[in-house]
Amino acid sequence: MGKLAIPFIKQLEIVKLRKQGYSIKEIAEKVSVGVGTSGKYCSGIVVSNSGSKRLELRRFPAKMKSLQEKKEALYFSSKIIGKLNKRDLLLIISSLYWGEGTKRELNLINSDPELIKVFVLGLLSLGVNKKSIKVNIRFYTGQDKKELTKYWLNFLGLHALNLVGYEEVHSLGSSNKLKYGMCRVRVEKASYYHKVLLSAISIISSGSSNG
User: What does the alpha-carbon distance between residue 192 and residue 127 come to, in Å, rounded to a whole number?
Assistant: First the structure.
């Protein structure tokens, strides 16, 4: 047997309060119904102009709190990290490689431009020659590979000579597409640097096990 509808008088009260700009949670408390029930009867109700202002004012403190927490978190992180040095970059790119790289060769693929950029900068800091860094762009059917290539090369500070090819992926729908496709970074003749990353991963792993 389904749940009985709440009394009509309560339904009217919910509508009235919603138009006045009360939140779903506030209405649930005032009318003594569940939050789900309150949300159900609030659905589709157009809030008045004064009500919209009330809702915005109630949300403002939450937004301010979130911004303040973000500011404090940035300060906290900056204070701990400070200026990145060569050791820090090795730890960072080794950790990235641990999660995203391959074991057979120095090769990493990801869709996050910032992640790829940090990885490339880390490689350069180790002494990898920029000419040795090769990228392959993976794009989805319907995406402009030339625009994607321009974006990745500019963002990573690389040149056309660093591009080695493309890989087209047939997407079932636009919802499956990644905005910038994906970028694979490979380093030519990277046996030594590959061993450096794997060694760093081993050291990190040993250190966390002993901690």
Answer: 11
Name the domain count of the chain: 2
Closest of 53, 59, 61, 44 to residue 21, by C-alpha? 53
Q: Which ranges of the chain would DSSP assign to H, the alpha helix?
A: 8-19, 24-31, 35-42, 49-81, 86-100, 113-126, 145-156, 191-210
Does the pTM surpass 0.70? The reply is no
Length of the chain: 211
Residue 5: per-residue pLDDT: 82
Task: Yes or no: say if 116 and 156 are a contact pair by the CB < 8 Å rule.
Answer: yes
Query: Structural domain of residue 65, as residue ranges?
Result: 8-79
| Residue 189 and residue 172 in one domain | yes
Check whether residue 14 and residue 101 sit in a common domain. no
User: Are 102 and 202 within one domain?
Assistant: yes
- Summarised one tens digit per residue, pLDDT across range 168-193 is 888 755 545 788 999 999 999 999 99
Task: Indicate whether 3 belongs to any domain.
Answer: no
